[in-house]
Write a structure and sequence with these properties.
About 45% of the residues lie in helices and about 20% in strands. It is α/β, with parallel strands linked by helices. The chain has two domains: about 220 residues, 3-Layer(aba) Sandwich (Rossmann fold), CATH 3.40.50.150; about 50 residues. Strands 1, 2, 3, 4, 5, 6, 7, 8 and 9 form a nine-stranded mixed β-sheet that branches. Helix 6 links the parallel strand 1 and strand 2. Helix 10 packs across helix 11. The longest helix is centred in the last third of the chain and has 19 residues.
Length: about 280
């Protein structure tokens, strides 16, 4: 699908909300990290989160501890909790009832966090904020909504502030997942186009290898389900064995292999993930 063709497609926001409200086979935390359909152990999501935090450590460290943070589409509150331990004030916004309840429960012990119900496209607080974080929200928005949201977020940044996106990506082009689960997977170059369309923003991009590591495990689970159908489709034991086999060979599976595949221009796993740091051009 070309970018021009893609512009004609539409994400159904009601369907997106329904999916996250009604998703099965997992907790709000595993659903938020999209590990719930693969029987991977909780440690897999924790590993991904740890690696992701390491990837953008210096971006987070650039925000003063007295800073205020807005977490748009905060999911189960995982990143809101992390931010609350670093910064003075955090506001999280979430439209899914399941995720909203989980985020409030997760951060209930933190007095500097406020989790509120709302659609990030329409219900943004005034700010201003020192950092605004979107942990995988743009992939559930149409192009025009992404540009409009970025423009609205720009107006809520303090001087020197930043917007950080964490988005699932493709090597090239765009793919629209339709049906019960809806999402738009865009290439990094297409995200650059959308960011340019929002105007007056510089961009820094980093590959999210923590996400890649997790998706490798998910892809292996899918291969096992396809080629070994006599084994149970859903098995926590088999899911854990897959994960720990990769973790046990991490120097090869989680470090060397992604690097080599990238240099050879081999797109596996197909779905990747990148962090984008956006800052106002002065």
């Amino acid at each position: 699908m070309t970018h021009k063709d893609h512009a004609k497609q539409q994400i159904n926001n009601t369907a997106v909300k329904k999916y996250f409200d009604n998703a099965q086979f997992g907790t709000a935390a595993t659903i938020s990290m999209m590990t719930h359909e693969f029987n991977l152990p909780p440690s897999a999501a924790n590993y991904r989160l740890h690696k992701e935090s390491e990837t953008i450590y210096d971006w987070l460290a650039a925000v003063h501890h007295t800073g205020s943070v807005l977490d748009v589409g905060c999911g189960a509150g995982t990143w809101s909790e992390i931010f609350a331990e670093r910064y003075k004030a955090v506001i999280g916004i979430e439209q899914s009832g399941l995720m909203l309840r989980a985020a409030k429960e997760r951060t209930a012990h933190l007095s500097n966090v406020k989790i509120q119900e709302g659609d990030g496209r329409y219900d943004l607080p005034d700010g201003p904020f020192d950092m605004i974080f979107l942990g995988g929200l743009c992939m559930y928005l149409n192009d025009d909504d992404v540009k409009a949201l970025l423009q609205a977020l720009k107006a809520r940044l303090n001087e020197g502030g930043s917007i950080i996106l964490r988005e699932s990506t493709l090597h090239e082009g765009v793919y629209l997942a339709q049906g019960e689960y809806q999402a738009i997977y865009r290439s990094v170059s297409l995200y650059h186009e959308l960011i340019d369309g929002a105007g007056n923003l510089s961009v820094e991009v980093r590959r999210n290898y923590g996400y890649t590591n997790l998706v490798m495990a998910e892809e292996l689970v899918n291969l096992r389900r396809r080629w070994l159908p006599f084994l149970p489709k859903n098995s926590k034991t088999l899911g854990s064995l897959t994960w720990w086999a990769l973790r046990g060979t991490a120097a090869i599976s989680f470090w060397a292999m992604p690097q080599v595949l990238s240099k050879l221009n081999i797109c596996w796993p197909r779905i990747q993930n990148h962090f984008f740091r956006l800052r106002l051009v002065v």
